[in-house]
Amino acid sequence: MGQQITDSTLREVAAMLTRFEPPALISQERIRLPSGPEVLVLAVPALAGDGPFTFEGRAYQRIGSTTSAMPQARYEALLLEHVHGRSRWENAPATGISLKQLDREEILRTVRLGIEAGRLPESTGRDVGDILDRLRLRENGHLLNAAVVLFGKETVPGYPQRQLRLARFKGIDKTEFLDNRQMRGHAFALLDEAMTFLHRHLPISGRFEPERLERIDELLFLTAALREALVNALCHRDYSIAGGAVNVAVFDDRLEIWSDGTLPFGLQPEDLKQEHTSRPRNPYITDVFYRRGLVEQWGRGTNKIVELCVQAGHPEPEFGQQAGSVFVRFWPVVRKATTSVTDQVGTKSGLSRDQVTVLTKCLEERALRDIMAIAGRSNRTKFRDQVLKPLLKAGLLEMTIPDKPRSRLQKYRLTDMGRAWLAAQENASSNHGQTV
Question: What would the pLDDT profile of 327-368 be if each residue is shown by its tens digit?
């Protein structure tokens, strides 16, 4: 219908618009109708990155046809996301860091892998400065913190958060170390170090399947899923925590990867197994991992970890958030007894009572005569052939002097795989007769 628009009308509207914080870009247009009155049109451009806005100190939300006050937690999350889009630790200048302190070969390797993956143009040259500009790791000639995380040499000072902690624990808690290492360097070097450590310490699980003569050997945990989880941790951790790190812990019964910082933008651990939007904490760092072919866009990393485990017959990993850190926990594969470790020792009927006794009593090094006494056996040759040799062949037991099997000082002890088997037996005992 239109109305009579007076100076008073315009002043009233202008006063109303001043109640928005921050100031909203609202345009006004007066349109005269054929009948005489005018219509005052207010238009708001929907620009990404604007807001969130308050009106008279309150934030509101529109759900369907209803307008209501926005919950405080939701408003704070939107405000944090708005600030994150412009100002982050990764896109802050790396003060005092020069190109000479970056790993040139790793930068060129990134270009080569990016071209092979079809994620960098073939015209990308070998000029390091130009490459960093393309990857948004340098602005106005100044390196960003993201460049140091991705390519900084081990000797770069002032970045203690470029750290990886690796541990192999004895048993199922953190009481005793079997191996403990701490390393510093750029993200790709840390990824390689972590994978090397896991291959060194993870036992090989062997099994037989019906109608197949060859034994199937595989790591106790799925390599592809572990690598994906490590990449995820390196991309999405909170690098603003100066003392932070990525932590890898191997136990007898599980493997855990921890990264400092909580989940961003209101995500919860249960969301990580569902479809969720991709809103990386460190988009510049994540983009370089993407261009190297190590990650996909669209927030598929955690879903891919779950899918890899399920497709390989492994239990689903567990995602969690605790004490300011995010973790993923992997469990060993559980199989039915017909294809279990009992098959690994080469017997038709499964693990014998004496073999179980040996495994449970060899947590510490023991001489052959002591093991035989515990098992109540007296024939040394039969005991070696029937009990020890299958366990040694399966990788559950090892000699302390392997190059001199007949040494009078020879002793026997559990391997990492043997310890994992014992721990898994305890976990599986309540699972209706299933074993690892």
Answer: 999 998 754 433 344 444 444 335 677 888 888 877 788 888
Q: Which domains occur in the chain, in start order? A: 7-74 (no CATH), 163-330 (3.30.565.60), 337-428 (1.10.10.10)
**pLDDT tops 50 at residue 431:** no
Query: Are 253 and 424 within 8 A, CB to CB?
Result: yes
Q: Whose CA is closest to 359, among 401, 419, 400?
A: 419
Burial track 107-129 (b if 16+ CB lie within 10 A, e otherwise): beebbebbeeeeebeeebeeebe
Q: Locate all alpha helices (DSSP H) within 5-162, ordered by sequence.
A: 7-17, 72-84, 104-116, 128-134, 145-151
Mean pLDDT for 2-26 is 90
Is residue 205 very low, low, confident or very high in pLDDT (cuts 50, 70, 90)? low
Nearest Cα neighbor of 188 from 113, 96, 243, 130 is: 113
- Phi, psi for 184 (deg, rounded to 5): -125, 150
CA distance 105 to 212: 46
**Residue 3 per-residue DSSP state:** B
The Cβ of residue 404 has, within 10 Å, a number of other Cβ atoms equal to: 11
H helix or E strand, kind and range, residue 354:
helix 353-361
pLDDT in tens, 244-269: 999 999 998 899 999 998 887 677 88
Mean pLDDT of the chain: 84
Read off the pLDDT of residues 214-248 as tens digits, 9 standing for 90 and up: 545 566 788 889 999 999 999 999 999 988 999 99
Q: How far is CA 179 from the centre of its chain?
A: 21
CA-based nearest residue to 305, from 333, 326, 321, 328:
328
**Cα torsion 275, 232, 318, 246: sign:** negative
> Can you read off the two tokens belonging to residue 434?
């299933």
